[in-house]
Write a structure and sequence with these properties.
2 copies of one chain form a homodimer. The first copy, chain A, is an alpha+beta fold. The first copy, chain A, is 33% helix and 28% strand. In chain A, strand 17 and strand 18 form a beta hairpin. In chain A, helix 2 crosses helix 6. The longest helix of chain A has 26 residues. Strand 5 of chain A pairs antiparallel with strand 5 of chain B, so a sheet runs across the interface.
Chain lengths: 506, 506
């Protein structure tokens, strides 16, 4: 492998592997602004595919998109007490609306005459500004439910950042819905979890998730309860892939949003909010990729098939390029997952075939088609799978494109199966504190540890302090039926109703 | 017309008409943050259709999307002198990264211990941060051209704001390209103007535009020259619908971006940038709408066909609802402009037909289908066009859906034709200062005034001061061949090479 392409192997240093992969696969880059990343075209194309799929799932479940302001008046954060603690701390604060020439030296300074009366916060999440708006929009039960989503950028001033996983600015969608009853809001939170997020992560990202409820200590600030999906990375940590919050009447009360019921009574509205972000790109990378670079599931791969025609002279290239164009055209007329197959032909003349193979393997292209002069004369092409590395020779005829297209759902399923097998191999049931502590020993420790817990915050905190493992979720469906049986807490020995899922988390 | 729906007629007060229309057509709303708007679902759906069409045109001309940080370090604005003057003045300045409890009272304050070493500016446009990044991406001629677009929000601290037309925060796309030569950059700026923006505004928005070059006084700060498209509103003012800038080597020099040419020489890169924004929604409203509300061109109408079934009793409604469902299904299986036809059935029981007609007329639905019990028994439906108000009775059979679908391109063309005729009726050629000044007298003055100009900034400034009219553009193609003939400046009497277009502008 050429030096240009080499990345640190996962086994050597997982964090370095991840960071180098993100850069070398052209997914994202560091920027001049601390904690903010540049999403490069290849990475952004993956995010666009994610957005397209998620947006379709939201709309299919009755949601519409809107857009709310980037800035939130400081006073709004002061209204919902828990929310203040959770979000109004590390954030970007706008205090001035003008720069002026520095009177004491070169350059520009914030103009003291243009200080804002009330500072504005760059939104870390939009519950407050949206509920302030909903107060105007909601009067009667006929205005409900309100099922609104927004695609936006948000800013949380993180001290330790990592590309895609934790950045000061990130892109996301945030849904904010309003309902007449608790039950309707509950139904909405679960619809998002199952019909939108769950389907997306499993069917598009090929990542199996455990769906469950967050403990009190891990729930969203201001929520009644939070649903989550948790995935396992290859360094056996848990990563939160998306959350859906039942907010109860907390925000409706903080912003005084009431509606007149069919019976003429004035009631506070029930709410949900839910979001997934560019963090999903990080999750996807961590779930499937290998020491050669990105492995992208076909439904989200910006390029699904790369064709590499060979030939050292013009005459040979005319033939291999021609065959490439024909095959690409046939593939582009076919579709997978409702979209035309995404094909690229690498006709660069100054790069060797080996260089090109590495180049596209690094960038996660699912299938490579090698069209060499000798194979072509024999009426054949070589097809290589990115996920397994398997190569096969296919006769070049009118069925070739269809055979290549058929590999895409096959790879999609294989990636899911592999990730599921990996998760199962790294899910452990333990019953004693000794086993529990041992499971999380060392840096890379744990996987999913399914254990009994007494249900108290105190125990959760003590476990986190001793092992760095936290409760990732209380599964909605037990992973195994035995998990739903009562037992005794692995830490306190007190009674436990069922097992919950612990892990070290990203 | 019921009071709920009434808006001020255009003839009475055009500004009030516009503002009331935006609110009552559910397109946008004021927010709690000064100068920032909330884009409501109906307005956002129109923006999404615009985005989809534009994004397709960008990709068809070889562009890719990426995403750059929201924040720009203050020092970046200090690098390109003209750009500073143009953009680093009225902007949102982030000075702190934390809020803390106010030690002297209730609430939160920016934490003095968390003041940023260097203030960050919320991007008013992204040339500086992007060219800082391109420095890393561009080394060799093989890295060129770089054809990147981003969809993003930007902030310019405007003192006088109007929904969609001028807001502190707005949504837009900004393309930023890098090229080896001046000619390639010039070609790019023109490709965007003609193949992307020009096609979009004329074919999707049904708005005729004059394409031209901006005068020095009106060009983008930091550009070599700026191309623009100018449309005429119904109050006969000009509105800039999109701009494409040839930046020369200005930003490459300010950020020291060079490439090694095929001959091994180190050269500065040439650049373009180009953008259109949510202002286009305002342009669209101004171009076509009437005193009943929004008139949306079919290709961008969130709802193209609304079906209003009638019936006072359950039995009748079962029949009219059934016929509505069947017709809607047939329409949804048809497409217009490459997308399925967008149909809504208004089954509300508590609202009268008249209420519903006004409701959907206000929101710009192109075609209304009324399904009443008597018509239905006679095997007919009534179809009304939003643009003309024309009503016709159609026999309800297997051809009805197709006949309704055929109205969409017809309306699209009719709107364009009407807007073009309006523009032509409001384009005047004048040769004396007396005529010129008279054309712009009064508040609503002018339309497009095509007149000779001596080419000096001095004259442009003097004309603007006396009449409030500015040079909207120097047309690329003369509107009439005579416009390309030399003459004498309408203001100074000095020689003029050709006529240019003056107007009062939004």
């Amino acid at each position: 492998m050429s030096k240009d392409f080499g990345i640190t192997p996962r086994g050597e240093n997982y964090a370095d592997w991840y960071n180098e992969l993100v850069i070398k696969a052209d997914l994202a880059d560091y920027s001049a602004v601390r904690g903010c990343m540049v999403i490069k075209p290849h990475g952004y194309a993956m995010w666009e595919l994610m957005q397209g799929a998620l947006d379709g799932l939201f709309k299919a479940t009755g949601h519409v998109n809107a857009y709310f302001p980037l800035f939130i008046p400081k006073s709004f954060f002061e209204k919902e007490a828990e929310h203040v603690d959770g979000f109004a701390k590390e954030c970007a604060v706008v205090t001035h609306h003008r720069l002026k020439a520095n009177p004491d030296g070169p350059g520009l300074i914030p103009d003291p005459a243009a200080e804002l009366e009330e500072p504005l916060i760059v939104r870390p999440t939009s519950e407050t500004i949206i509920w302030n708006t909903y107060k105007k929009w909601i009067q009667s039960y006929r205005d409900l439910p309100l099922l609104v989503n927004q695609w936006a950028n948000v800013v949380r001033w993180e001290m330790r950042t990592r590309l895609f996983l934790r950045t000061a600015e990130f892109l996301w969608q945030e849904g904010h819905t309003a309902h007449a009853t608790y039950d309707e809001a509950e139904q909405e939170a679960l619809t998002i979890l199952h019909q939108c997020y769950g389907r997306f992560v499993e069917e598009w990202m090929a990542v199996p998730v455990i769906k469950g409820v967050k403990s009190e200590g891990e729930k969203f600030p201001g929520a009644d309860h939070t649903y989550t999906m948790e995935a396992l990375t290859q360094d056996v940590r848990s990563i939160q892939a998306g959350t859906s919050h039942h907010l109860g009447q907390n925000f409706a009360k903080a912003f005084d949003v009431t509606y007149q019921s069919a019976e003429g009574k004035l009631e506070h509205v029930y709410a949900t909010s839910w979001g997934v972000s560019t963090r999903l790109v990080g999750t996807l990378i961590m779930a499937h990729s290998d020491d050669k670079g990105l492995v992208a599931p076909p439904r989200l791969a910006p390029i699904q098939v790369v064709i590499v025609p060979m030939g050292r002279d013009e005459e040979t290239r005319t033939k291999t390029h021609g065959a490439s164009d024909t095959l690409a055209q046939q593939l582009r007329e076919m579709s997978y997952g409702g979209l035309p197959i995404r094909v690229h032909i690498d006709k660069r003349e100054k790069e060797s075939p080996g260089f090109k193979y590495n180049h596209w393997e690094m960038r996660g292209v699912c299938v490579r088609v090698e069209i060499g002069p000798r194979d072509l004369e024999a009426g054949a092409v070589v097809v290589a799978r990115r996920d397994t590395g398997d190569k096969q020779t296919l006769t070049l005829d009118e069925t070739t494109a269809a055979k290549i297209a058929d590999l895409l759902p096959e790879i999609q399923q294989a990636l899911y199966d592999r990730a599921l097998a990996f998760r199962e191999a790294n899910t452990h049931r333990v019953d004693t504190w000794e086993e529990f502590a041992k499971a999380f020993e060392g840096e890379g420790g744990g996987g999913f540890v399914v254990a009994h817990w007494d249900g108290t915050q105190e125990t959760e905190d003590a476990i986190a302090e001793k092992t760095k493992a936290t409760i990732r979720c209380i599964p909605l469906e037990p992973l195994r039926s035995e998990d739903a049986q009562p037992g005794v807490c692995v830490y306190s020995g007190k009674p436990s109703k069922r097992r919950v899922v612990f892990a070290k988390a990203y």
